Structures are given as C-alpha cells and as structure tokens.
Amino acid sequence: MLVRSIEPSDEESYRAILESTTAEDRYCRFFHRVDHFDPAEVHRFVETNPDIAGMIAFEGPVPLGAAHAVRLDAESAELAIVVARNARHLGVGVALLEALIACLKERGFHRLLACALRENHAFEHLAKRAGFHVEQADGATFRWVLALTADESAAGR
Ligand SMILES: CC(C)(COP(=O)(O)OP(=O)(O)OC[C@H]1O[C@@H](n2cnc3c(N)ncnc32)[C@H](O)[C@@H]1OP(=O)(O)O)[C@@H](O)C(=O)NCCC(=O)NCCS
Q1: Is the C-beta atom of 63 inside 6 A of ligand 1?
Q2: For ligand 1, is residue 88 a contact (CB within 6 Å)?
Q3: For 103-130, what is each residue's pLDDT tens digit?
Q4: Which fold has domain 2-112?
Q5: Structural domain spans, the chain
Q6: 142 lines ligand 1 (CB under 6 A)
Q7: 61 Cα: distance to centroid of ligand 1 (angstroms)
Q8: Cα dihedral 109/99/154/144 (nearest 10)
Q9: Residue nearest to atom 47 of ligand 1 (CA)
Q10: pLDDT tens, 47-87?
Q11: Is 138 helix (H, G, I), strand (E, B) or coil?
Q12: Percent helix, strand and coil across the chain, each rounded to 5?
C-alpha cells in the first residue's frame, strides 16, 4: 500500500473513493444525507491549500481511502477520513491516520479533533488505537481529541 499527500491529479481517485461509500457511510462522514458529490467540494479536497492537509492511499492504481485535516485555528485541525467500501478492515484507516498525524506534527499543530456518531464503532476503534479520547459527548455524537504535542498530552487534552 502506498500512502502519500493528496494532489490535484487525484481528483478522480478521491471521487471514486467517495462514490464507493454507502448512504450510511456518508452520513457518518458528513452528518447529513449526501446523494451526490459537488465537483467543487471534491476539487477543494485535492487542491493545494495551506489550511487543509490530505493523504490518499493506493494499492497499485486502485484508490483505497483518503484522510484530511482542516485547520480550525492556529493550533487545531479537524479530521475527516473515509476508506473505500471494499478496502475496509485491512489497515487502510490506520495507515492514513498515521501519515496524517506525522504531517500535522511537522506543520506544528497541537490538537486533532474529530466528530463522529456514537454508534460509529469502526471510527471508535480507529480513534482509540491512535490515542484519541472522547472530550465531549453531545447527543448522538462524540467529539474526539488527540494531543499532538507533549505539552497537550501533559495537560490531559
Ligand atoms: C472508520 C473507517 C475510516 C475505518 O477504516 P478501515 O480502513 O476499515 O480501518 P482499519 O482497517 O485501519 O481498522 C482500524 C481498527 O478499527 C477496527 N475496525 C474497523 N472497522 C470496524 C468495525 N466496523 N467495527 C469494529 N471495529 C472496526 C479494526 O479491527 C482495527 O482495530 P485493530 O487495530 O484493533 O484490529 C471506515 O470504516 C470508514 O471509512 N467509515 C465511513 C466514514 C467514517 O465513518 N469516517 C469517520 C468520521 S470522519
């Protein structure tokens, strides 16, 4: 498996990953019903943007999944991750998250946040494995947080 930074030339691959998902997956990822993908939104997540870090995974020419972190403020970013339906449970999520976390540390981010439905057990496993903890439980969602620096860890954030 190859995991690398996402590039503008990955637009079709990223779209193919999104299109492999079910309506339920998309609800988990976007928190609302998504029936089609806005080309401008797909483009936004592959273009070079100082406020978005993105990783994509391939097996040969086949795109497997993508993970993004969108800047929230000077120190924090929010995670969005999606693995193609037929590539689940193979460690793609773990590989994408590890690469993204390394990139965020290099860029000097302190915290990575993620919102996910409480019932999203796939993400729960992935998040706990990476060291996230639940910072806040709000209705049907959990707000997960991962400290990216020793200071944040010591502060228990
Ligand atoms: C969450 C998601 C990214 C996980 O991707 P994945 O490539 O299948 O995950 P991995 O294969 O790397 O597995 C990571 C861990 O989660 C576990 N896991 C994966 N899917 C699981 C499931 N449905 N139920 C329970 N555990 C699960 C794996 O066993 C593994 O645990 P382990 O290391 O202890 O064995 C994927 O299910 C997905 O794209 N879901 C839809 C989008 C979404 O919900 N995104 C999160 C909100 S942004």
Answers
A1: no
A2: yes
A3: 999 999 999 999 999 999 999 999 999 9
A4: Aminopeptidase (3.40.630)
A5: 2-112
A6: no
A7: 22
A8: 90
A9: 29
A10: 999 999 999 999 999 999 999 999 999 999 999 999 999 99
A11: strand
A12: 40, 30, 30
